[in-house]
Amino acid sequence: MLLISIISIIIYIVAGVMIYYNLYNYDKSSKIKLMIIGFIITFIATVIICFISANGISASANYVSIARNTSILIFAPINAIISLPYICNVLNKYKDRRINETQLKRKILIFSIILILIFIFEMAYIKDFEMGLISSAIND
Predict the structure, then answer these.
(1) 81 and 14 Cβ atoms separated by less than 8 Å
(2) What is the Cα–Cα distance from 64 to 81, expressed in whole angstroms?
(3) Is-contact 108 43, C-beta < 8 A?
């Protein structure tokens, strides 16, 4: 679990750097606020996805809990790296007045729909991932 935690932290750092540089028109405190808010939102979304995907897995509660925590540690920063840099780039374009409010809303809406589709596929993938973790733990 330590290795998974270290990998998760590294991915969060990469996501943070990407977000920081995609918000080049914002001051440092705004960048940090947006980064923290984005990380919290993607973490909550990932936790919800992992809890939904763990439904129906028949194994010891301890194994399911470990598999769910591992999934959260891996997929939360990956979801952050997929979604937050793009959203921050769009916000930056809006602040630069390169896009208007209507274009901003349309881009966010389209990206939200794409994210929902990704999350649906991710639920199935996470369930398979968790079941693989549990079966390998049981067989060892």
Answers:
(1) yes
(2) 26
(3) no
Characterise 50 by phi-psi region: left (phi > 0), alpha (psi -120 to 50), beta (else). alpha
What does the alpha-carbon distance between residue 13 and residue 23 come to, in Å, rounded to a whole number?
15
The pTM is what?
A: 0.86
What Rg, from alpha-carbon coordinates, does the chain have?
17
Spatial contact of 85 and 38, defined as CB atoms under 8 Å apart: no
Q: What is the pLDDT of residues 53-70, one digit of tens each?
A: 877 777 777 888 888 899
Give residue 43's domain range: 2-139
Q: What is the CB neighbour count within 10 angstroms for residue 77?
A: 24
How far apart CA 62 and CA 65 sit, in angstroms, is 5
Number of domains into which the chain is organized? 1
Q: How far apart are CA 84 and CA 19, in angstroms?
A: 7
The tens digit of pLDDT for each residue in 11-25 reads 999 999 999 888 888
Residue pair 134/83 in contact by the 8 Å Cβ criterion: no
